Here is the input.
Amino acid sequence: MKFTVKLLTCFTVSCLLAASFSLAEARKPQSESTKTLPVNKPAAAKTLPEGFNTMKQWPVKSAETSGTLIFSDSPETVKQDGILYSDVVEGKSRILYYHLNGTTEDKKVVVILENMSADDSFVAITRGGIGGPSEDYLDVGKATQTEYFQAPKLDKIYLAARGKRILDSRMSATVVAPGKLVYGVFDFTTKVRSRFRCDAAGHGGSADLCQQGTSFAS
Here is the structure.
């Protein structure tokens, strides 16, 4: 019995001492109970050896080599006969036409070249492709791009002074039925000021009069 009392007394004293220690620690100022950890300073930047540079400035020059873009796409849907687009260029150029027959009649879509100078000249065709006519627009685009990138062209179109010619003979032979699309891209170079015109016409219109190798009056 006496041993049990002594054991309980020792346990009670130990609990009181532990509680007293915890209370004393809680009452200590922050500076006494918390140790400040050392802060690592960032390493000083290394100095590169003399004459050593990680990057060099290179002189830059810009040059425009793409030429002029003739874009016949407005209106994209052809509602009537007439001139769809017309522009005058000289030098390196590209013509892109993209038209859908939105009428109820067969049409032809042609690109006409006109020499605006008083001298005979040539138009050099360096690359080109035609797709359609078809109601499958993706197929038309694929056919045009396949021909365009397949191989460069080395065609020359003779243009008499003030004369007019068709860009590609396939245009005058292609009938675009209602609801079908035609799409073409051609790169060319002219030595004189020349007008490029994209026309839409039915049978008997300017598309039928414009044959490869001939000129016609407006």
Observations:
- The chain is about 25% helix and 35% strand.
- Residues 68-209 form a domain with the Jelly Rolls fold (CATH 2.60.120).
- The helical segments are 2-27, 30-33, 137-150, 169-173, 206-209.
